[in-house]
């Protein structure tokens, strides 16, 4: 296997039991194990805690749609220039949106993606929170409310943006390499 992280990566023999179960589930569901699952598994308990919260925010039923959550992931990851998350969540956005051209455009520059008012407000908020968090004020919520997001949706949006800022920093800091499979998904 090619290097997927600048740190050591556990083998199936050395990985935490819970991590091995997650790897097997990913292999069964996706046909491969995401490199982020392998690269973060060096500290099994910490990885599983991260995964549980990530999974709750991104993969479970929420107040935002799967496509909206993946759009946020792509905007945040693009702003942070996180290669792993931009590629992997770009694939997920193509899948959930059913519109690979728009998804790829969001990945490059969401302002050119011909989004609706709701999506534009979400992207603008995600970008500002990512790039200039110290400048956030209560007034930044008004465009979201004007686009008909309620408080529960706004909270979920903020949590998803926060999760991807964390994940981007870990992925970029440790040189995580996206799986080749992501590049061809939903095209």
From TrEMBL:
**InterPro entries cross-referenced by the UniProt entry:** AhpD-like (IPR029032), AhpD_core (IPR004675), CMD-like (IPR003779), Uncharacterised_peroxidase-rel (IPR010195)
Q: Does the keyword Oxidoreductase apply?
A: yes
Q: Name one GO molecular function term.
A: peroxiredoxin activity
Q: Tell me where on the tree of life, at the top rank, the source sits.
A: Bacteria
Classification via Pfam families: CMD
Q: Does the keyword Oxidoreductase apply?
A: yes
Q: Which UniProt keywords apply?
A: Oxidoreductase, Peroxidase
| Residue ranges constituting the Carboxymuconolactone decarboxylase-like domain according to the UniProt record | 46-127
Q: Which PANTHER family match?
A: CARBOXYMUCONOLACTONE DECARBOXYLASE-LIKE DOMAIN-CONTAINING PROTEIN, SI:CH211-175M2.5
Name of protein: Alkylhydroperoxidase
Query: Which species is the source of this protein?
Result: Deinococcus koreensis
